[in-house]
# Entry
Amino acid sequence: MKMKIILSLLLFCAVLPAALAQGGGISDLFRSVTGAIGGKETAAPAQKGETAVLGVRGMDEGDAKTSAPAAGDAKLLEGWAVGRKEAEAAAARRGLAARPVTYE
Amino acid sequence: MRLHLFRSSLLAATLILASSGIQAQSRNLDLGSIFDSAKNLAKSQSVGSMSEEEELAIGKEVVAATLGSYPPVRDAALQHRLNQVGVWIALQSSRPDLPWRFAAVESDSINAFAAPGGTILVTRGMLGHVTNEAELACVLGHEIGHVTRRHHIAVLQKSLLVAAGASALTATSKAGNSEEYRRLLIGESKEIFNRRLDRGSEREADEDGILLAARAGYDPAACLNFMQRLAALKVDTNALAALYKTHPTAKERVVDVDSSLGRLKGAAPGDGARPELSLNAAAAGRQKTQAR
# Structure
């Protein structure tokens, strides 16, 4: 309990400047602190009229809420994977050759 | 002992930042610069320290979550071909040995995503807008750049350390509790991807896209052509909403890409291949777009 109080104070001090700098306000500040202590996710609520994205940039939060992780689909990606030799052979068939290019 | 010192220094830094932030607020000083300092501190202490294994584990879960909303296009031939092109470009990067995976996903948005660890997802809408393989190389090269430079990992770690005051958590992970650390990072990723990467990161990724396409034998000018075509689209097009939320506008990027092309050494604009795009989904995506 004592540790929890100390941790709360510490987190409060740590989060304050960031919250103020981001203009997130006191509610965001407490959300961060309580989330950190409770180990809960601290996703910010979507602002009105703004598309929130989740997981990967550009994803709509609404879509994400209604979906479950697709481990099966992720395995499909493994089946479509290509190794170095196959990629090199395919590039050669299309007349592509690697060349040294840099920026000045 | 080292762990103790690390934990102590982070704790001290956090407290200093916290107190300086309070003072700055009362004196009306620039809190933004203090916040930037904190971000830099987080970057210097965390980004390079994450192992590739941790990066892959985070990426795996992010990809599974993403595919739950945007399922992969069920066309094995297309996906296989996309991987042939993608891996060929990734081989020209600084991290050729990552387990690179590429997939087309069902979405009309014009967008592409990079997950930590080397998985790149391209929407069907994006495939409908690239007109040849060189342009696709630029798009994939841009996303590969985000992965090789660990842009998203850096943002995640900054967010954890700065916004959540997670100095103790970072130290905990160094003590071997990487599972807990990973769980926190994944949780945090749900919020952090809400924000666009900074302009500098996007510029770096655009530069990488041009460079990798050129190294792979493609005409680097295709990157400019593609960006110009995007810039010509109406900004309020639904298909562009997600792209512009997370990237600078195409008009801004046209300027940057043009400048980068001028600095290339070893391949001039116009020098390189522009093979026909042999992806069936590209044609399908184009038909869908034209029909709207």
About this structure: The longest helix of chain A spans residues 2-22.
